[in-house]
Amino acid sequence: MRRALTAGIVLTAATVLASCAGAAPAAEPSADSASSAPAAEAGSALDLSGVCPATVVMQQDWQPEAEHGAMYNLVGDDYTVDTDAKTVTGSLVAQGVDTGVDIEVRPGGPNVNFQPVPALMYLDPDILLGAVTTDAAIVASADQPTVAVASQLTWSPQILMWDPESHDGAETIEEATADGAIVVTAGDVIPSLLKSQDLIDDSQVDTSYEGTPQRFVSDPSILQQGFATAEPYIYENEIPEWGKPVGYQLLSEIGWSVYPEPLAVRPEAIEEHGDCLEKLIPIMQQSQLDFLEEPDKGIALILDLVEQYDTGWTYSEGVAKYSVEQQLALGLVEDDRASGVFGAFDPERMQTIVDDFAPFLVDAGSISQSDADAIEVDSLYTNDFLDTAISIQ
Fold first, then answer.
1. Which end of the chain lies in a sparser environment, N or C, as judged by fewer CB atoms within 10 Å?
2. Signal sequence: where (predicted)?
């Protein structure tokens, strides 16, 4: 069952099915009881001891998957899995050395009763970094503000997909919707974007998508939301009732400009943990690039966690490897086009996101007009902790 996202928040009740699996007892350590990595040189850029919390807690917004590789790639081989709490903890190992602190990665979605990441960060201030998509940050800005400190995926993998045979070989969303096809999404924000560009009208909107393939398989005339890093592979290779390619286009190519799942902190953490962030954020920048270059270790952990958490979420090695390939092939991970720095936020793009998406979110009832008017773009992000020398090139 795939996630169904609107405004960065899982909305559909049907996906709660994944949380119904019974919890297993906490697991024993999955590997050695101590990290095999050598210790970082004292005081070096990779030595986090003394400046970071003893356990650096990171919160993802969905189940373990390759789009979250940067976090999982830092978990050392001494990791332990708590199958009750659905967490993995181990030495924080970066660039081959033990940083002197531990890392704990928490999944989202059904594991946290679908609570948005900003809400979780305010419920538990021990969470230092959370994955907060820009539109989710806008929704939470009034009561649970967060500050994005590093982009990981530069562009969203969100797509609309369709059956090429049912839409005369269409290659773009504009071509696929020209015949009046119904667009099935989980919520109103994607339709709002499409309507703002005159790609669809109200008669083509269906917001009943619940994250399963049944509707698409039984009615190939529709368009359906998905992810370029998963659905094209899954539908062709893992859904025998379909078993063929789908057509799709990235929503980022038609204005879905939000930063997907950038790392964010509560504003208070910038002062409280500033010294830690100075060292940790460059580690996160490099970890994303390291994972994409050599993903096997991170994928192995992700697959192990999916199995041990046993929530009903299925995720194959084939999908994980496909995700890595797509992140690179489609340019979903790239240097910031304005600065040339990997992980940086473009101020003009951030302003465009607020200008474009705040009205969509008001129309969807996710925020009030007064909250939209009060948003200060500069409060949503900072590039201050980035290592400007880190680049994917």
1. C
2. 1-26
**pLDDT bracket for residue 135 (50, 70, 90):** very high
Taking the domains of the chain in order of start, what are their residue ranges? 5-154+259-380, 158-254
Q: And the tokens for 226?
A: 């998905």
Q: Which two tokens stand for residue 319?
A: 């999908």
DSSP state, 75? Answer: B
| The total number of residues written for the chain in this structure | 393
- Pure H helices in 206-245: 214-218, 231-237
**Of 92, 11, 30, 26, whose CA–CA distance to 56 is shortest?**
92
- Cα 100 from Cα 220, distance rounded (Å): 53
Task: In whole angstroms, give the CA distance from residue 365 to residue 215.
Answer: 26
Query: In CATH, which of 3.40.190.10, 3.40.50.1000, 3.40.50.300, 3.30.200.20 is domain 5-154+259-380?
Result: 3.40.190.10
316-319: Cβ within 8 A, 24+ apart? 316/238, 318/233, 318/237, 318/238, 319/65, 319/66, 319/230, 319/233, 319/234, 319/238
The per-residue pLDDT for range 329-381, each reduced to its tens digit, is 999 999 999 999 999 999 999 999 999 999 999 999 999 999 999 999 999 99
